[in-house]
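Lecture 7, part 2: worked example. A protein chain together with zinc ion.
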Amino acid sequence: MKNRIIPLLRALVKINSVNATLSGGPGEKEISGFVRRYLTKLGLDPEIQPTDPHRTNVVAIIPGINPNDTLLLNGHLDTVGVEGMDAPFSLRQAGDKLYGRGTYDMKGSIAIMLLLAEYFTRHPPPISILFTFVADEEDRSAGMEYLVKRWLPEFFPLPFGGIFLEPTELDIGVSHKGVSWYEIEVFGKAAHGSRPSEGVDAILPLRSALAELNDIQSELLNSEADPLLGHATLHASIIDGGTALSIIPRRSRLQWERRTLPGESQTRVDLELERVIQSVKIFPGDHRVKGREIFVRPPYKVSKTAKILTRLQDASPHSKLVGLSFWSDSALCGQAGIPSVLFGPIGHGAHAVDEWVSLKSLIRVYEILKKLIVSFEVPVSH
Ligand SMILES: [Zn+2]
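Predicted complex, written out as structure tokens:
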């Protein structure tokens, strides 16, 4: 197996699968074709899911001796962009480190999934294994959305658990924050700067909005922290408005991001938008304001007693339980009724120019997942 990882990862890295909507790359079409052909050669019957004209998931199942018990293994096929990298698509080895775009996040794990598929097509597993290779994790999760909304509802019974092979330094990711994006727009009336009484300034009222966001931020930092994830946070992200120095601005816009904790009610988080709108309304002047929620991704925390968690802990007793700073597709899977954890290799530079993954840690991930699956062995009856 060890000798197989490097050539397989080299072939995966060579295929440019930079996310199309996030970074203007070619997307997942070519790499999903590679994965499909690999699985077909193993004798499996992979299904290609065109989630939209440019994006494709690949799913395949290896039936187990107990076919009703299914484990889901998931990886995403896309990567972030490659700006500033010298040779992003050619794998380079330096000792234990394998460099290249996607080695760590997460083509190393895609290689492990393919090698596990290869092993378990030759050694029938005690439980069924559902392999899901999805598109668009790095942007809007179109692949996982398609899977959980359009495909998984037909799958019966649902997998008892999912493992997302995102890079976790061989720890077990049990929770992560959610993300909510908001914006307000303020409308005034344009006028020449020499005649301010004829206009309504649409930028000055943002002062109240920013002060309100600052208050909310302080409240969040003073409220109870999650033991693994810390505090909920927010930050002002984008501000724009105005057309020229000598013109009273007729429009302005402020956008911000809120990172939510498991257990926070989304309805309460949405009330913060109302607070900001109200603060702008009471700012003196004849401006108007409207606001909206742009995008919401839920936070996630797996139950302590979920079978997938206890089994993975048994298979990897040295792994710590950790909260992860990044959002992951596992939240959508968890919401769809499949308790999910994150478990993957050691490395560095996800989304950076010096991305690498540890070869030894990839081998560990492979061995631990194999051990986990085999641990479901049906007891021999005498
Ligand atoms: Zn990732």
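Residues 23 and 379 are 50 Å apart (CA to CA). The radius of gyration is 24 Å. Keep this in mind for problem set question 3.
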